[in-house]
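Example record for the data management plan.
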Amino acid sequence: MAFLKRLGFYLFGLAIGLIFLAIFLKNKTAETGVEFCYFPNCRTLKDIRSKPLTYSDDVKELMNGYQLDSIKISYFLREGKVDFKKSNTKSTPCKTYIIEAEYNDGTAVMTVKNCPDNALIEKVAF
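Corresponding structural encoding:
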């Protein structure tokens, strides 16, 4: 069998396989809400989102003053970037993460203490 004929069969099979894979993954994520989080930033934010959130007194004051609400906190935990250089990931049992997100033409910073059973939002600076 000539090389070009084998290459054609290979590419045809590869194309069919990619189409099936795309359909399978599209249906799986749409129906079940499965997320593919393999990078450290995504895994950290997903872990924090999966736990009940508690707020420090400073954050409660911001929320009572209408400067901060649950939508903004959710935005941090979805679109934020964890700064691992400034975070304290070696402490036990709770690790402290610094999360930065773009907010109103600037960068806002949130400090979260991630414990095994809950996550405490310690501080938010705009």
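Summary line stored alongside the record: The mean pLDDT is 88.
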